[in-house]
Design a protein that fits this description.
Elements lengths: L1 H54 L2 H10 L2 H21 L5 H20 L2 H6 L3 H42 L3
Helix pairs in contact: 1-2, 1-3, 1-4, 1-6, 3-4, 4-6
């Protein structure tokens, strides 16, 4: 009987450590997803501000043109690029949907800000930027959905492990 208990204990301890490691990996994954989506959300807020200023009256357009800072936008785009690159490097291979959504959002973000220039602020109509912003919004919704779906799959897996553990622990 002691040998059986020793074997069960020898199996239970590594299994418990594996569960802890999986939970830690899930927390790390959730943090990476949040970092990625936060970078894109921050850039979207700036894009929305630019679009509203351009779509607004001439006074708003002039104020935004005066405050327009391409280096600040480049900084935000570098942050988005870094988040997208980290998503590809640090997220498991079974999450292709999130990586694809990140690539689409990155391309949309670049398209929007590349079409936003000092000349466009005073001469072009905002309709072209509105179309790019709508595509950006759609891609960001896809990014958030893919991230949420990935986290739910991880939580379902952890819940199943917990249920199995609860079933076997009393025995």
């Amino acid at each position: 009987m002691g040998a059986v208990a020793g074997i069960l204990l020898g199996v239970a301890i590594p299994a418990q450590e594996a569960i802890r490691a999986r939970k830690a990996f899930g927390a790390h994954l959730a943090e990476r997803i949040r970092e990625t989506t936060d970078a894109f959300d921050f850039a979207e807020a700036l894009a929305r501000q630019a679009l509203y200023a351009i779509s607004g009256p001439a006074r708003e357009r002039a104020r935004f043109a005066a405050a327009y800072n391409r280096s600040y936008i480049e900084h935000i785009l570098r942050r988005v690029d870094a988040a997208a690159n980290n998503a590809v490097k640090n997220i498991p291979e079974d999450t292709a949907g999130f990586i694809i959504a990140t690539a689409h959002a990155r391309a949309s973000m670049r398209d929007f800000f590349d079409n936003l220039s000092a000349a466009n602020l005073t001469t072009s109509s905002p309709s072209a930027l509105r179309g790019l912003f709508d595509r950006l919004g759609s891609d960001l919704r896809e990014l958030h959905t893919a991230g949420d779906r990935m986290l739910k799959m991880r939580h379902v897996g952890l819940a199943a492990i917990g249920m199995c553990r609860a079933f076997w622990d009393p025995r």
